[in-house]
Amino acid sequence: MNAGLTALPAGNVVRGTVSRVEGDMAVVDVVRSSGCGRCHEPGGCGGTNLATGAACVSNYRLANTIGAKPGEEVLVAVPPGSILKAVAWAYGVPGGLMLVGAGMATAVIGSDMAALAGAAVGLVTGFVLLRLTRRKAGQPSGQALLLRPEK
């Protein structure tokens, strides 16, 4: 049933509880047992509060491919390399197009203002391109998977 689970490193699988189902999506609550390093800073999530024993709960909206119901315990698995790949796309495409835009504008017009405008156009084009090419159908490769725990 959890065929791909054994191929995933242990750090890429966490337990969670389905809090609600919205159509074909499940909202899964995952309790983190350790903080992110910003626990006590303004804007931090609070992490694990040792004084009260309360922990930080993160919510994830995932494709409910297993038909999970509210209250059910599930596993959230992230395929190896998918986080690095997502970061590379999210920063690489807009950043690369920003540099290309700045370079082209400088080559054609030759001023600093043209380079700035070209960089802005390249950056916006990169974000739009990412938005338009985002996979919408099925289970995109690299996306977190919802699995049933083995009994």
In round numbers, the mean pLDDT is: 78
Largest sheet: 5 strands, antiparallel
Compute the number of helices: 2
Beta-strand percent range: 15-25%
Per-chain topology:
Blueprint: E1 13-22, E2 25-32, E3 56-63, E4 73-77, H1 82-108, H2 112-133, E5 145-147
Antiparallel strand pairs: 1-2, 1-4, 2-3, 4-5
Helix pairs in contact: 1-2
What labels describe this entry?
151 residues, alpha+beta, OB fold (Dihydrolipoamide Acetyltransferase, E2P), five-stranded antiparallel beta sheet, 2 helices, 32% helix, 23% strand, disordered N terminus
Describe the structure.
By secondary structure, the chain is α+β, with helices and mostly antiparallel strands. It folds into two domains: 3-79 and 140-147, OB fold (Dihydrolipoamide Acetyltransferase, E2P) (Beta Barrel); 83-133, no CATH class. It is built from two helices and five strands. It has helices at 82-108, 112-133; strands spanning 13-22, 25-32, 56-63, 73-77, 145-147. The chain has a five-stranded antiparallel sheet, with no helix packed on it. Strand 1 and strand 2 form a beta hairpin.
Summarize the structure.
The chain is of the alpha+beta class and 151 residues long.
